[in-house]
Design goal:
This protein has one domain: START domain (Alpha-D-Glucose-1,6-Bisphosphate, Chain A, domain 4). Helix content is about 30%, strand content about 35%. It contains 5 helices and 6 strands, in the order αβααβββββαα. Strands 1-6-5-4-3-2 form a 6-stranded antiparallel beta sheet, with helices on one face. The model has no long low-confidence stretch (mean pLDDT about 95).
């Protein structure tokens, strides 16, 4: 393997189908209070160019704050934002990363196909990639997201 091939950024892709319509998934992806239920406390607003934070717990010399910017918000279809945070002195989750998340929603006859791509992990942030690509990473977050979506759909 050449050096350039080993330096290609890594991505995590998670996708599946949920029964509620894309409008319900969009609400769960973009409402700050709902995001806090399935991901982290935040200052998120689904407006292109909006700068926001997600707050995790502090680890080592990192305060637990992820900073991001909404790169694209197309209601009920695509949400893309940057996510930066961590410290070069922290090993594993909490290590410095600068990534982009893209959520894509596609209507189906019996629900919505949802696809998440978390892109931009480098060799330096590979430990974070490994954690987020495990069952305790995005798989766990997506399960919490699905529960919020179903509850929102059933109970409003």
């Amino acid at each position: 393997m050449s050096d350039s091939a080993s330096e290609q950024p890594l991505s995590i892709v998670v996708e599946g189908m949920l029964v509620p319509p894309s409008e319900v998934l969009w609400q769960a992806l973009t409402d700050s209070d709902l995001i806090a239920q399935w991901f982290m406390p935040n200052t998120f607003e689904a407006e292109d160019g909006h700068h926001f934070t997600f707050k995790s717990g502090p680890i080592g010399d990192w305060d637990g704050i992820f900073e991001g910017e909404v790169l694209e918000a197309k209601p009920t279809w695509r949400l893309r934002y940057s996510l930066r945070g961590g410290s070069p002195n922290v090993e594993g989750f909490g290590h410095l990363m600068d990534t982009v998340l893209t959520w894509t929603l596609s209507p189906l006859p019996n629900g919505t196909h949802v696809r998440l791509e978390h892109a931009g992990f480098t060799e330096d942030s590979k430990a974070v990639y490994t954690i987020m690509n495990s069952e305790n990473g995005w798989a766990s977050v997506i399960n919490r997201f699905a529960k919020v979506v179903v509850d929102l759909h059933e109970n409003g």
